[in-house]
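Researcher: Dear colleague, please comment on this protein.
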Amino acid sequence: MSATRPTWVDVDLDAVAHNVGALTFDGTDVMAVVKADAYGHGDVAVARAALDAGASWLGVALVEEGLGLRAAGIEAPILALSELPPGSEEEAVSASITPTVYSKGGWERLSAAARAAGSPVGVHVKVDTGMHRVGVWPPEAAAAFVSEVVAAGLELEGIWTHLACADTDAVTTKAQLELFSDVLDDVRRSGHRPGLVHAANTAGAIGFPEARFDLVRPGIGLYGIEPAPGVGSDLDLRPAMTWRSAVAFVKRLPAGRRVSYGHRYAPDRDAWMATVPVGYADGYPRMLSSRADVLIGGRRCRVAGSVTMDQLIVDCGDIEPSPGDEVVLLGTQGDETLTAWELAGSSETIAYEIVARVGPRVPRRYHGGGGAA
């Protein structure tokens, strides 16, 4: 627990290690995706646990994320999953952050950075096979693009794509993989041999063996959360995050007494109300107002009224809580469990957002896997 505030996140690094093992398939390496501060879990600690468990690569979204891992002493290969912003090439190359490229401007700037560094630079070419976010488009242009990249003095270390619907749409996913296979054939016919081929996020790795290629890139599964409810339920993925707080204040209110901003909630009977020091500034969604439960004393208690910036109120019914009682916002207490997907359903979002939005003012405590970063 924080010395100054009784709201924190526990991260089980042994669960992370277990999930790496569950998502490791014969003949396929693992890239642990630790972007967005490891989906809110803490990137340095998670990266170390994942690497110790057998992951061979790390994936980040931002150059700054890769630099932070390097500053922490992590030497494993790191792939920047988006093209480097103009002006960041020399710093990224100096830190041995492997760039993704998919535009002429991207490879031209990297070629200049490689010449300035006086050393070869390996890149991964990303091809758009249907996500239509970033990547070489149309896919039929990929072989020519790769030839330009190599002619510019860059090394083709890898080629990859990203699956848009692997958790929900097998037809679309198979079409993307067939298109990617055609791209690989074209690239090889043009005389190029990428060192690594990869396409599978968590859902792709679980549901489509043909998507695994040389490397899989688990993100959400690394943290023990299914990419969609039921997808990967047979893998025994173990949630790594438990979000806790403690009762700060208790009062007894009569039936009908309205609470919190807007007076949008009133108990229908006399009830004990507990104030908990966590709010939307910490990443607890305001959308959960009067819609979600928390766990106190091993039982579910409904969030009462509007979630405020720093606090929320909980209807505990006839059972009187005490200041200091543990409150679980996400995770297990006794026989009850609140999953990220449950909270996501109550706030009309996805489980990814629930964990990734837990803010930096919520301390992380690490257990197992060698301890904290």
The longest helix spans residues 170-189. The chain has a mean pLDDT of 96.
